[in-house]
Amino acid sequence: MEQTLAILKPDCVRRGLIGEVIRRIEAAGFRIRAMKMVHLTKKEAEGFYAVHRGRPFFEELTTFMSSGPCVPMVLEKENAVADFRALIGATDPAEAAEGTIRREFAESKGQNIVHGSDSVENARIEIHFFFPSIELVDRR
Ligand code: UDP
């Protein structure tokens, strides 16, 4: 079974949307295999998004991601990586398909409610960024 790393971003937590977004994730057939709430430091956010270092939005993104608590979780499902990207929609909510989580709730391209890994390999790396193996329900 494939796994992906999702993060309910600080805007999701701040706006009281944790329950609503998790409801949609479960309704779409994902099983939650790990979950917690953490408040990233700026340095930790920079580490998580290291691939974007140097991009014009890097400073704003890492300031936002360290602005309050977020909820990383490991989701499991067949085809989890692609199916979760489809559930959340395009980065920019204005371009996200009708019915997707970002289209419904995101206020901007930067503050877009939720993160989802973009490949199986990155999912593995991102899962281990947040979760030591003792916190994974189904260790591997
Ligand atoms: N981002 C932004 N401006 C941009 C592109 C991205 O603020 O022009 C932020 C946004 O929060 C996005 C994150 O940086 O979710 C990571 O960007 P990526 O291109 O990986 O988008 P994602 O995979 O999250 O859709």
UniProtKB/TrEMBL annotation:
GO BP field: CTP biosynthetic process; GTP biosynthetic process; UTP biosynthetic process
Disulfide bond in keyword set: no
UniProt keyword annotations, A-Z: ATP-binding, Cytoplasm, Kinase, Magnesium, Metal-binding, Nucleotide metabolism, Nucleotide-binding, Phosphoprotein, Transferase
All residue ranges annotated as the Nucleoside diphosphate kinase-like domain in the record: 1-138
InterPro entries, per the entry: NDK-like_dom (IPR034907), NDK-like_dom_sf (IPR036850), Nucleoside_diP_kinase (IPR001564), Nucleoside_diP_kinase_AS (IPR023005)
Native species: Rhodothermus profundi
SUPFAM superfamilies xref list: Nucleoside diphosphate kinase, NDK
Protein name in the entry: Nucleoside diphosphate kinase
PROSITE patterns, A to Z: NDPK, NDPK_LIKE
EC number(s) on file: 2.7.4.6
GO CC annotation terms, alphabetical: cytoplasm
GO molecular function terms noted in the UniProt entry: ATP binding; metal ion binding; nucleoside diphosphate kinase activity
UniProt entry tagged with the keyword Flavoprotein: no
Chain's role: Major role in the synthesis of nucleoside triphosphates other than ATP. The ATP gamma phosphate is transferred to the NDP beta phosphate via a ping-pong mechanism, using a phosphorylated active-site intermediate.
Record field: catalytic activity: a 2'-deoxyribonucleoside 5'-diphosphate + ATP = a 2'-deoxyribonucleoside 5'-triphosphate + ADP; a ribonucleoside 5'-diphosphate + ATP = a ribonucleoside 5'-triphosphate + ADP
UniProt xrefs under Gene3D superfamilies: Nucleoside diphosphate kinase-like domain
Sequence positions that bind ATP: K9, F57, R85, T91, R102, N112
Active site residues according to the UniProt entry: H115 (pros-phosphohistidine intermediate)
Superkingdom of the organism of origin: Bacteria
Taxonomic classification: Bacteria, Pseudomonadati, Rhodothermota, Rhodothermia, Rhodothermales
Compartments, record wording: Cytoplasm
Cofactor: Mg(2+)
Subunit structure: Homotetramer.
Pfam family, one: NDK
Protein family (similarity comment): Belongs to the NDK family.
Enzyme class: transferase
